[in-house]
Fold this sequence. Notes:
The chain is mainly beta and 209 residues long. It has 3 helices and 13 strands, in the order αββββββββααβββββ. The strands form 4 sheets. A 4-stranded antiparallel beta sheet has the order 6-7-8-9. Strands 10-11-12-13 form a 4-stranded antiparallel beta sheet, with no helix packed on it. The radius of gyration is 20 Å and the shape is globular.
Amino acid sequence: MSRKSEVNEVLIIKIQHTVAERTRDSTEVLFTNANINSPPGGRINYTTTPPTSASNRLCIFDTGRAATPYGTNTLATHEGLKLICMNLSNNTILKIIIFGPTAAPADFYLNFGAYGIAISADGATLYRAVTSGRSLYSIPAAHLLDNSPCSKIMAQGSVLLHGHKGLSNGMESNTNNDMYAGNTEDKSNLIFHLDTGIVTTFVRDPRFD
Length: 209
């Protein structure tokens, strides 16, 4: 068996899906179906970190370059690199934006994800945490859009410290004004309730890293 076929076999065995929905009984269902998880060129193209927007949309960014067991990334295939907008009301695709070879060659790696940033449900507050840090800060979004002469001073004076949320990188907020974040120190995902400042554990599993 050649090295190439060995890689393909390992990938097919280990990667059952890359976009799934967690149900109430802790099982995983392909989202939205098997075809979505098997794009042109093979399922290895689907490498995503999907955020949910306040308008009930799911934006999935497909880097088109999955990691192999040998520590390298596959080259992006035709239409592999794309941004997909899903309608969560009926689980249908609203729009697909494909990055062609001119904008992103096959050996180019794009990441639209912004670590350590989340937006409140009303869009009025930007939350920020230092990458791999514990402290959570916020600033009114209006100050970031203000270009008046004193805007920088006003922005600096409006930064608030909300306490600790656990050691993590990525954060995500929902329409209930709750923010989800990982905590590598106790291998859990936490919910930071932005309205009250209370932190609760969403799920904990020793397999989390």
